[in-house]
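QUALITY CONTROL LOG
STEP: pairwise intake check
CHECKER ROLE: data steward
CRITERIA: each record must contain a sequence immediately followed by its C-alpha cells, with no blank fields

ENTRY 1 OF 2
RESULT FIELD BELOW
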Amino acid sequence: MPRTLRVAAAQLGPIQKADSRQSVIDRLMSLMAQAKDQRCEFVVFPETALTTFFPRWYMEDQAEVDQYFDDAMPNDLTQPLFDFSADNGIGFYLGYGEKCDEDGETHRYNTAILVDQSGQIVGKYRKVHLPGHSEYDTGRKWQHLEKRYFEVGNLGFPVWETMGGRFGMCICNDRRWPETFRVMGLQQVELVALGYNTPVLNSMSDEEGAELRMFHNHLSLQAGAYQNSTYVVASAKAGNEDGFEMMGGSAIVAPSGEILAVAKTVEDELIWADCDFDKCVFGRETIFNFAAHRRPEHYSRITDQVGAEE
C-alpha cells in the first residue's frame, strides 16, 4: 500500500525590515489555512521565515541583531502555528534565527525545526554551510553577513522517522553541497525539507544573471533528489525586500529528479504535490544502491581535506 503524503512549499513574498512579527505570523497562518484547504499534511516554510533576511545589514549593536532571533520555540507569537498544526493534523518545517544557551554560553544559529502533525517539535537542524563573510566588505554590492551573525551548526544532518516517512532538513546554501544530501541519503532519507533566501543576482559578479542563478537553484535540488532517491521540498523567501531582489522558484522535486511543482510568483504562494515514499525505493535498489556500488576507500579526500589542492 502506498505511503503517500501531500506536501506543500509555502513560499513567502518579501518581508520588509519595518514589518511587524505579528504581520508575518498572520501570513504564515494564511498559508497554513490554504494548505488545509488543499488537504496538505506537511508544509515547508522558508529560511528565517519570521523576519527579513537580516544578514544583508551590517550591525555592530548586539541588541539590534538579537531582535531577529528567538530564544524559545514555540513562543507567544508562534504558538498559533503549533495550535493550527495540532488541530488540523498538518506538520511543518520552520526556519528562524535561534538564540540559545549551551554549557553556560550564548549561541546563535540559523535553525530549522521539524514539527509533526500533533504540533510537537520532533527535530532540529542548524545550518552547516554558512556563506558570505563576517566583516563589512566594500567589494560587494550588498553584504552577506551570515558568518558574522551565526555559528556553524553543530547537529549534523540527522533524519527523523515521522509522518509516515524518513525526514531530513537543510537550509539554503546547504543545498549546493552534495555532501548535505549524501549524508542523509546514507540514512535512507525520503524527504528533505529546506528553506532558502537567495538573491536574484550575485553581489560579486555581473556575469551571473537571474536565469543562471535559478538554473543553479533547481539543479542543486534536482541533483540532490535524484542522486539520493529522495523527495526534496524547497521553499523560498522571494521578492523585493527593502530594495534587495530575492529569487522565488520554490519547488517540489521527485526522487527521479523531476520537478513536480514550482512557484510562479515572488509573492506568498502555496504549491503542493503528493509524495509516495515507496517511490524512493527503486533508485536506492538499482543505480544508487549504495551498499553495492559505493567505494568509500577512495573518498578520503572529502573528509580529510577542506580546500582544493593540486
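ENTRY 2 OF 2
RESULT FIELD BELOW
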Amino acid sequence: MLLFLIKLVRHLTDRDPDWRQNTVLILDNAQYHRSKMMLAWCKDLKIPLMFLGSYQYNLAPIELMFSYIKARDLNPDKIRAASK
C-alpha cells in the first residue's frame, strides 16, 4: 500500500504541484484504512483524507463502478447471453 501511495503522490505532484489544495482521498472505514500505519503514511505524504460514515457506500464514487461491473460483467445471465 505504501508503494501505491508514493506513486500516487508522485503522479499527482507531476500533474499539479498544488494538488493537495483541491484533492481529497476518500476512504471507507475499513480497519486497514484506519490503521496507525496507514494514517502515519498519509500524514507523512501529506495526503488529505476524508472518511465516509458507517454504511455510506452510496457516497463512494467507486461503488458506482463496482455496481456496473457486478451487474454487467459478473452477472452469469449476461455472460451466458453474450456467449450464445
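INTAKE CHECK: passed for both entries
DESCRIPTIVE NOTE, ENTRY 2: The first strand starts at residue 25 and ends at 27.
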